[in-house]
Amino acid sequence: MPDAIFQFPRGFMWGTATAAHQVEGNNINNNWAKWESEPGRIIKGQKSGLACDWWGGRWKEDFERARNTGQNAHRFSIEWSRIQPEPDRWDDEALNKYLEMCRWLYRNNMTPLVTLHHFTDPLWLVERGGWENEETPALFARYVRRVVTSLKDYVNLWVTINEPNVYIFSGWVSGEFPPGKNDLACAVKVAVNLIRGHAAGYKVIHEVQSEAQVGVATNYRSLVPARSWFLLDRPPMKIQDQIFNRAINDCLSSGKLNLPFKKVNIPEAAGTQDFIGLNYYTRDLVQFSLKDYASLFGRRFFPKDADLSPTGFIANIPAGMWDGLKWAHEYKLPVIITENGVEDHLDTLRPRYTIEHLHQVWRAINFNWRIKGYFHWSLVDNFEWERGWTQRFGLWGLDTTTQERIRRSSVDMYETICKENGISSDMVKRYAPEIFEKLFPAD
Ligand code: BGC
Description:
39% of the residues lie in helices and 19% in strands. The protein is an alpha/beta fold. It has one domain: TIM Barrel, CATH 3.20.20.80. β11, α12 and β12 (371-376) form a beta-alpha-beta unit. It is globular. It binds beta-D-glucopyranose. Beta-D-glucopyranose (BGC) is lined by residues 19, 162-163, 166, 219, 279, 339, 377, 384, 393.
């Protein structure tokens, strides 16, 4: 068979994504540092600790690794508690470090995509009620103004809030994230305030930088009825889909937050996204179950024969990436895949997972959908929230005791994709021969 390639458009952004608390180390002034110090919160009592030591300067060597392996973009986040350690104190030295990172990327022809809020909140903010407090959106906007004013020469792609849906669900429904609550009324309050915060941030960013492109990154979970023939599986699936996948982005289009049990008008949120940020990892089946009233009568699980990641956290279901792209495309805005990846310390699943998901992205591009870039989660193993260090999402592995980076074979796989700007048959044969026939059928 002749060499073939699924070619991506010129100028496509190829990068990886990281987040401040997960890579910086020594973040001691936010709600996660406190959470990590409480018994029973993080698996095996693990802590973010020194993480990947980016704050100690190792960001540069990791950025160099990314650049040297063909990446032309990087998504990372700013830690609010470093910029504003106390309500009336701003730390310009901290801001300068981020400025240095942005400048480095810019000068090395890598497009920076900066996230302004990725799960963590300053302790002083949490003491005032955090996102349950309706004054928080304005406080967030003040912080955003400060950051954007200083980074604007090098950055024009901004994510205001990473995964508001996960932040709300994990903090106020399942309780795995701080503040560890299970309180639906509070969850709605937090949703409204996050949306207001995003809207205020959006306005400020555009005031400071007219050419800015601003969005949120949504964790899109593909959901399908467990039994296509059983009508009762559909309503719980639809309701979960509405609440988790759609409600927030819909509100950023229409200004109306439409939850099955509550409707809220937030007019200032209408039309406040310039692109859709899609974080896709996996798909669940949803089955009607009277027992599961807490999940609105829909039990979620992976298909029996699914291709699972080592800790069973992710099922490799590329069709779900297609669902996510379709969902994103329907907003009629450019789409950036702001996260996609798999925890796999063995690096046996990652190559085929990545290639198959990118193949779906290529398909969507061939429908002329406006997909602008792909950011693999993640550049190097980092602190996985309540799952601590037990899950390894990095292209590079990390030895947390020595800070040594371990070059996984996925580094070479991704480098080939970035440099060829596509998925070539040669590359698939080399890194994921088990899916070669599927992607390049003989006839
Ligand atoms: C989050 C990341 C996290 C990743 C893998 C996403 O939901 O944005 O912070 O590391 O999932 O668990």
